[in-house]
Amino acid sequence: MARYTGPKSKISRKFNEEIFGPSKALKKKSYPPGMHGRGRRKKQSEYAVQLAEKQKAKYIYGVLEKQFANLFEKAHRKGGITGENLLVLLESRLDNTVYRLGIAPTRRAARQLVLHKHITVNGEVVNIPSYSLKIGDAVAVREKSKSLEAITTSLTVRNARAFSWLEWDAAEMVGKFVSAPQRDQIPEKIQEQLIVELYSK
């Protein structure tokens, strides 16, 4: 499966959640897309519910199937609660951290910034969106990219809400991954236990 580039509102309506941020379409049409969207909804099987939760997580974080399966395997091997480990690994991705720091308005935009070499990790340019950050890593805007309009605009309207596992120095445009997030600190509405149950079949 290729990375999804279709209508964002369609996915938001499918899951009845603002997957890619605020959606006007979701408010206007609070039913699933397609010709049967308004009809009576069948009761979903246990498998369908679990699969939908996995797909939702993949869409939120912009991860492909193989990447997601690899992350799950890594989370499972780590010890502890597999579902929480999975979310921590997803949150530790470079593109997600760039988004959380407010350098980009969406994860998709953060991915583009990373791919186009506007972001550094510990002073070195990293252009791999899936790069996994470690505690203590410094994520910064590259010196010659600090005046880029897309970045300055995003930082101007940056969400005032701070994430406790990240630090941000606005003057230097440098963020720090100070700790692994706890499950109750991650705002995404994902029922990770359903994903664990799906992969356990």
TrEMBL record:
Residues 92-156 form the RNA-binding S4 domain. Keywords: Ribonucleoprotein, Ribosomal protein, RNA-binding, rRNA-binding. Residues 23-45 are annotated as: Disordered. Gene3D superfamilies: Ribosomal Protein S4 Delta 41, Chain A, domain 1 (1.10.1050.10), RNA-binding S4 domain (3.10.290.10). It comes from the Bacteria. SUPFAM superfamilies: Alpha-L RNA-binding motif. Residues 3-91 form the Small ribosomal subunit protein uS4 N-terminal domain. One of its GO terms (cellular component) is ribosome. The keyword Electron transport does not apply. InterPro entries: Ribosomal_uS4, Ribosomal_uS4_bac-type, Ribosomal_uS4_CS, Ribosomal_uS4_N, S4_RNA-bd, S4_RNA-bd_sf. Part of the 30S ribosomal subunit. Contacts protein S5. The interaction surface between S4 and S5 is involved in control of translational fidelity. PANTHER family: 30S 40S RIBOSOMAL PROTEIN (PTHR11831), SMALL RIBOSOMAL SUBUNIT PROTEIN US4M (PTHR11831:SF4). NCBIfam families: PRK05327.1, rpsD_bact. One of the primary rRNA binding proteins, it binds directly to 16S rRNA where it nucleates assembly of the body of the 30S subunit. Belongs to the universal ribosomal protein uS4 family. This is Small ribosomal subunit protein uS4. It comes from Pontibacter silvestris. The gene is rpsD.
